[in-house]
Design a protein that fits this description.
Two copies of one chain form a homodimer. By secondary structure, the first copy, chain A, is α/β, with parallel strands linked by helices. Chain A folds into two domains: 5-53, RecR Domain 1 (Helicase, Ruva Protein, domain 3, Orthogonal Bundle); 75-172, Dna Topoisomerase Vi A Subunit, Chain: A, domain 2. Chain A has seven helices and seven strands, in the order H-H-H-E-E-E-H-E-H-E-H-E-H-E. Chain A has helices spanning 5-14, 22-35, 37-53, 88-97, 124-133, 147-160, 185-193, and strands spanning 55-56, 63-64, 78-85, 102-106, 138-141, 166-169, 196-197. In chain A, helix 6 links the parallel strand 5 (138-141) and strand 6 (166-169). In chain A, helix 1 (5-14) packs across helix 2, helix 2 packs across helix 3 (37-53) and helix 4 packs across helix 7 (185-193). The first copy, chain A, is elongated and about 65 Å long. The model of chain A has no long low-confidence stretch (mean pLDDT 90). The structure holds zinc ion (ZN) (2 copies). One zinc ion binds at residues 57, 59-60, 62, 68-69, 71-72 of chain A. Chains A, B: A zinc finger (C4-type) spans 57-72. Chains A, B: May play a role in DNA repair. It seems to be involved in an RecBC-independent recombinational process of DNA repair. It may act with RecF and RecO. Chains A, B: Belongs to the RecR family.
């Protein structure tokens, strides 16, 4: 369906958002144009600023516009414990559980040879360097309990063996095949509490 | 939950989209930041352009960046028949039915005294002027079959009585309480076909 070029382009562009099909994209475009131009302008501006300004934390690789994210920059956090997760949304989920006072390392992915994602792409050498340079005592592996998440945890465990740190895996309690960010905070708190030393 | 100011602002701004709660806004922001910056930049640009450039058709009031929309500007359409709808999305739905060759008048709302929306806000005088100046023969009222949509159709019918045009109401076939834009094209085609003269 052709509206007018500017509207067509907006409907098209909205489809880059996850979960937005042609019908919802049209609803969104008309909603903004008919009822919330100010919201539309603000969204344009904040999109532009975030796409431009947000990079990765130089210590934990999560998304932030500062050189170091707020957690890495916080001297009250326990910097001797690192929790390894797949994505920034997992950091959010774990923070919401309120059970964790350590720091993070965000892989920004998981090992997936079929997609060409190897140890370098998920920053494993960066993690190893950080563990050696700082006095890290424990690494908690909180990758998702999926086949690829488990393989990633297994690979990192093998790399960490020689470094003399305690390596633990987040407790099962997170449902198998599930994704951290969709688990309720109670389950997450429980899973962290019940973590087991695996190396 | 606080990420970093630029990400917080983006998550917040995404909530101006209809049907987007805090959880989906977060997913959208992370998706763009982690995997589709180009899509994010493009969306920012097309939002800006559309919010800036899209206005209302001077003849039918629908959304367009031209003085007249493509339908009003099309001399092959039947300009002696006007279909009155509540919103631009209704034009899209009726066009998709493929049954209509006339033009439109888009109220951009419906009578709703409680919200301060009277005849002037929905452009009734503009519609009357157009009917008098052009040789309009039939006005099809295709407001939604809701209480307010029916009241709007009733009011417009009363205003049109003195003008000597045929006034018809879209056939019931559109489910009562339903909204045009969510009705399948077959039902819409049928409803147009079975319209009845009411004045
Ligand atoms: Zn960090
Ligand atoms: Zn028009």
């Amino acid at each position: 369906m052709a509206y007018s070029p500017l509207i067509d382009q907006l409907v098209d562009a909205l489809r880059c958002l996850p979960g937005v099909g042609p019908k919802s994209a049209q609803r969104m475009a008309f909603h903004l144009l008919e009822r919330d131009r100010e919201g539309g302008f603000k969204l344009a501006q904040h999109l532009e600023q975030a796409m431009q300004g947000v990079n990765r934390c130089e210590q934990c690789r999560t998304l932030t516009e500062q050189p170091k994210c707020a957690i890495c920059a916080n001297t009250k956090r326990d910097h001797e414990t690192i929790c390894v997760v797949e994505a920034p949304s997992d950091v959010v989920a774990l923070e919401q559980s309120g059970q964790y006072r350590g720091t993070y390392f965000v892989l920004m992915g998981k090992l997936s040879p079929i997609d060409g994602i190897g140890p370098e792409e998920i920053g494993v050498s960066h993690l190893l360097t950080r563990i050696q340079q700082q006095q890290v005592k424990e690494v908690i592996l909180a990758t998702n309990p999926t086949v690829e998440g488990e393989a990633t945890a297994y690979y990192i465990t093998a790399q960490l063996k020689a470094l003399g740190v305690t390596v633990s895996r987040i407790a099962h309690g997170v449902p198998l095949g599930g994704e951290l960010e969709f688990v309720d905070v109670g389950t997450l708190a429980h899973a962290l509490e019940g973590r087991q030393v695996i190396a």
